[in-house]
């Protein structure tokens, strides 16, 4: 039964209205508290989510943290360039540059402190900290090294190799720009890594392989002639560590598409990819654009195309890397059927 306000005394009416007002105020206050609780709970959830994202990002950053040789490569990127010289340069840890003669092998002793080059011996200062040397190979030149652990390295035209004078760490790591062939000295306790500027690395124990990682090329490739290697590429991203990797067996090549961030491994004849270390460039069923790119590096010459060339046409042939450019033009004409003109003053070969 509801109260009849018309027959109630004034005092009772006033008391009843006060209680009703008090009840309404209490309900409003409780509603505000509930709203605040919901808001505070939501804020806490958002904070936890953000904290989790920050933690993941921190872990991701740490996982992609560059190591000492990559840091050295980054800090010295502009100090030496193979494009500024027509001679092979050995840059020592104290920044002294030594010009390396043609057909000269840069050979280190087991301590890494003595270097035989140009029929002379160079002594480096002994240091407790890691010391890195750099070899710069200009276009039209090639170089060969024998590292302190006995690993043999051949560097192709337009390449740069950074390496420690001695391998004192738990792993043996070098940093490559361009193209190199590695015949790695076996040491199961110290795996060998070739690092590049593209979050790309090759891990080996003892093997013979080729790595091509020119900055202007669309792909980074590794070809295996002997042994076994693991090729890995760490994708750039905000969440987690997304690493693509594959294991190669002899007669396989892995190619990383730098733009698409995809890697494909196939079986093919890899022998031609190693021919340049023996003094000649061999190619089989290769697109002409790729052949010309390599000849540009090998002979330090530019090609001008006046003739429209089909990108689907492939060619096979071979060049001796000590041939003069007139011989190169003659071989290209016989291989492609095109007319070529060589301008000695500008070092340009025009395809008509």
TrEMBL record:
Residues 281-351 form the Protein FecR C-terminal domain. The chain crosses the membrane at residues 36-57. The lineage of its organism: Bacteria, Pseudomonadati, Bacteroidota, Flavobacteriia, Flavobacteriales. InterPro entries: FecR (IPR006860), FecR_C (IPR032508), Ferrdict_sens_TM (IPR012373). This is FecR domain-containing protein. Keywords: Membrane, Transmembrane, Transmembrane helix. Pfam families: FecR (PF04773), FecR_C (PF16344). Residues 137-230 form the FecR protein domain. It comes from the Bacteria.
